[in-house]
């Protein structure tokens, strides 16, 4: 492709509203342009990168017998109502009505649509397993779109759905997809880890996220420093043997603590430590208000609270709800003397406290000498806190460390979560109607592009990996007014194309400095400069990724390029 015939609007200055390097460079190098907040146009270079990411995905999906389909972006509300997600998905679901007042959603995900399709078509176990995937735009009304393509309101996604007659069949496909995803992100050159994750609004059990390690990642990964264990911090189990308290229980006593509301304030005021304080939060689990306890030096994990309570939706109670339940403000909550109708859940670490401190459910007062199971009752103990750096790894090997990550893929075992709600059944080998057992597998295609852009760059621009660079070779005649340079550049362009290389020819009449700056900014793997030595048949070559420069003879071009790309 000749640069005069395509559309690559490079920028010298960094856009002021671009926060991260990948976003800045994708704008500056002319790969994308913002249409409105969280919504982008992909320009020719960006579109080529997307297509190459898609091609890698398609190859690996087809290798595990996943077949491509294309499902509607507009989905009728009735399908989402069957699963209850029309009401529980939240404000991110973009809803609209047609001229007849019928409600629709723009596809944030496609579990309902694919399940409705299969329930009408597949009636026998003999047609299972079946694995279908698509690549199309998704729509989510993000409250705060940010970081360019990393968190947008419209984005390109690959989503696959598998249907099975037995759990063993799902396990087999899940493992195949795990390997396929590993192959995809390895081929793209990404530094990533597969981590144990929460299924969120999708539902289901047993799932993994694929995280690209990056300082700008919005997710925290907890990993072992001595093994392959890795989990999203929301799902990282806490495997700590808490000491049995040696101190004998003392008499419960209420103490005045004026204006002391936080754990640190109360601990300092009472001359104790945070790990001797009992933190109490009120959560709304579906429609029920429950008390959740943790040690004062720990943070309660809402995902674990959701699992412990069995609720579909968990959120912190409002100050008004707390006031109505316990007749006190949030800073004075405690489990002592609460009505027996209020369920109390406690983290395992609470059992290590003797003669601790907790709120008295009365403004300006706390209890001291509080002992669990003596001074208050707990319905269930569970792992309810966030893991901390330095905790033992759950697999028993090493200790936990933290890293930041960008989620680029997620695989789920959905089980019968959707098929039961939607009455999607097949006849098994005994002629009985059974709900499909399902799996779900997603990759954020446009997010992958941004993640690669974040990892493959330097101070001058992109350093795209060979697999998804928009072109392989950038030919740069320094002076298009020089007949020798111009003609040699055209010859090299045609010769490389005839050998099936993807070539970008900079045939613009720009100054050499502009051409070189743009070439570095765009970041194609190999730059071939046709300059002052063109008349001698000498080409100046640059490896964009390493910065190494060397000279090739014109007649050796194809052989050298083949060696460079190892074709």
Name a few traits of the molecule:
567 residues, alpha+beta, BirA Bifunctional Protein, domain 2, YbaK protein, Rossmann fold, 3 domains, 9-stranded mixed sheet, 31 strands, protein biosynthesis, ProRS_anticodon_short, ATP binding
Q: Can I get a quick summary?
A:
This protein is of the alpha+beta class. Strands 3, 7, 8, 9, 10, 11, 12, 21 and 24 form a nine-stranded mixed beta sheet that branches. A five-stranded mixed beta sheet has the order 16-14-15-17-20. The two termini are 21 Å apart.
Explain what the structure shows.
The chain has 3 domains: 16-237 and 401-453, 2-Layer Sandwich (BirA Bifunctional Protein, domain 2); 253-382, YbaK protein (Alpha-Beta Complex); 471-565, Anticodon-binding domain (Rossmann fold, 3-Layer(aba) Sandwich). 26% of the residues lie in helices and 29% in strands. The chain contains 14 helices and 31 strands. Strands 3, 7, 8, 9, 10, 11, 12, 21 and 24 form a 9-stranded mixed β-sheet that branches. Strands 16-14-15-17-20 form a 5-stranded mixed β-sheet. A 5-stranded mixed β-sheet has the order 28-27-29-30-31, sandwiched between helices. Belongs to the class-II aminoacyl-tRNA synthetase family. ProS type 1 subfamily. Keywords: Aminoacyl-tRNA synthetase, ATP-binding, Cytoplasm, Ligase, Nucleotide-binding, Protein biosynthesis. Its EC number is 6.1.1.15.
